[in-house]
Amino acid sequence: MHFILKNKIINRLINEKSPYLLQHAHNPVHWYPWVPEVFERASSEDKPIFLSIGYSTCHWCHVMERESFEDEEVAAVLNEYYISIKVDREERPDLDHFYMNFCQVLTGQGGWPLTIIMTPEKKPFFAGTYFPKHSRGGLAGLVELLNKIAALWKNQREKVISTGDELTAFVIKESLEFSAGELSDEVFDQVYQKLKQNYDPEYGGFGQAPKFPTPHQLTFLLRYEAVKGEPQALEMVEKTLVQMYKGGIFDHIGYGFSRYSTDRKWLVPHFEKMLYDNALLVISYLETYQVTQKGLYREIAEKIFTYVLREMTSPEGAFYSAEDADSEGVEGKFYVWTPEQIKEVLGEVAGEKFCRVYDITKQGNFEGSNIPNLLNSQDDANLHGDSLEHVNLGDDNLEHDNLAKLEQEFLEIRAKLYQARNKRVHPFKDDKILTAWNGLMIAALAMGARILDADQAQEQTQYLAAAEKALAFLFEKSISPDGRLLARYRSGEAAHLAYLDDYAFLVWALLELHQSTDKPEYLQKAIALNKEMLALFWDEKQKCLYMTSKDSEDILVRPKEIYDGALPAGNSVAVLNLLKIADLTGEYELEKIADELFYACGAEIADNPMDYTYLLQAYLFSKTRAHFCRDEQCQVPIQGRAEFTQALLDK
């Protein structure tokens, strides 16, 4: 299906639910979704497949669409020589995982948009990421590439397919095999030393630009400090959390964190906001508040919750996926300010004060405009006004106090700017409901209700109510008629058999809700869902969990993942869930399964332990449970936990 209706092109993506696919439904490219008949057609027409994988809030995906997929010349080449498929990586993480691995093997790097050319049998033989329409600045052009590969397909197909087969076999092998071996307790010190070596003492975080928050590295350090009593571990966490908050990666007007920083200082974000980042970051701030009792971390956590509940929550109570980096076709336009715009809203005196504190200047800090930030707010003792004069800027406690005072001083001012900004053209919002990411936010809200001060009773009630409402939505809307958990809901349709992340993150949410409410039904659901997960995903041979269920689509390989990237791996979260359920129920067979998984991946982890910081949190938990139990319920001795839980279930 590809036709023109009232001068507007419509292709086969028009009937899809994914916002990303719908963004491409009016391209002149004859796009297909990933459906079986596409591969039959490619085979019958003897054409290679052009596969493009991305997501709706991806800036470079938008750039490639504008430059190439909306272009008639590019479309003509694709339509003539290829069968073209669009995939939303957030709906199909299994496809993204396999083909991204292929791209990384072939090119040494990855990213989105992911560009794959493959045979009708789904075997890739070419990969890359973003390509401009024509070659420029050392980048190969898409038109030239497409024509060259079409010629190779016609004239040297056997060589092309042979190369693709070899690379595909290698990727399949890598996707299935981990190096087994015993883990030693020294691995915790090794991770700590690696993080310490990569730590940026000036701005916090790890490594250079671009900088990602990687919350699971921070939560590992919190646990390492608890077990080892190493103060520098906590110092690294605190410095990173404060600097991220001061930077432009945090939205000081509307709250919430952007995906990552393009610079070392955390000043210039890649402006899209993802639900999972905010869920994992709020957990980091909550746990750091729990450890330090410093009010700044509580306030930041509350701001993240404010953003999510105000901007990212559906009327039915579930949580949307993301907000775009672009508005009106310009990255960051919604978020940036000039001094004149600030003063127009606030007036001359208040506007000048805000500009001075939040780094709004005539020359700008981002492409001639300004991202509000507090990175330089401590450099001048007079900057905050007379009340903060003569402070000792080297004192971290005073810096926390000063930031807290700034929060109060500019509360009403920021509210005025928020109202003014709200009148701008908003970035696109991806309103699909992903089970896995909702699980993370439900877990975060349940923790927030439990951890925040007793005098915050209203907020506790609000957070708990939001968590329970979202959970009820998932169990009502994201379950198939035959009782299977599904991965995505949008516009009245739930689809895609749930992946490992969906199960693992939702069990995590249920365990947090149980701990915050003492309601036995949450523990019962966690136990049942965990049992179903093991039945569907466990590899009895290798003692690890697949990413896809045993009845999922055959895509050359059932991938496995233990690497903790932007999100902790499903295996990492699942193994910690196993240990917690074992403690709560006395089902110590689950503990044995966890030990088998640790051994199955042990040598792999030991080779580069910094890549597995959430999985190692689970391993650390298995070794030293007492250090993770600050809540009253957690103080129940391990040997009495099963009886304690049974009493709860019998309530």
How would you explain this protein's 3D organization?
By secondary structure, the protein is an alpha+beta fold. It contains 25 helices and 19 strands. A five-stranded mixed sheet has the order 3-5-4-6-7, sandwiched between helices. The protein is globular.
List the helices and strands and how they pair.
Blueprint: E1 3-5, E2 8-10, H1 19-23, E3 31-32, H2 36-45, E4 49-54, H3 59-69, H4 72-81, E5 83-88, H5 93-107, E6 114-118, E7 124-128, H6 142-155, H7 157-176, H8 186-198, H9 215-228, H10 231-246, E8 260-261, E9 269-270, E10 273-274, H11 275-292, H12 295-311, E11 322-323, E12 326-327, E13 330-331, H13 339-346, H14 348-357, H15 396-409, H16 411-421, E14 429-430, E15 433-434, H17 435-451, H18 457-477, E16 486-490, E17 493-497, H19 500-517, H20 520-537, E18 538-539, E19 544-545, H21 570-585, H22 589-600, H23 602-607, H24 613-623, H25 641-649
Parallel strand pairs: 3-5, 4-5
Antiparallel strand pairs: 1-2, 4-6, 6-7, 8-9, 10-11, 11-14, 12-13, 15-16, 16-17, 18-19
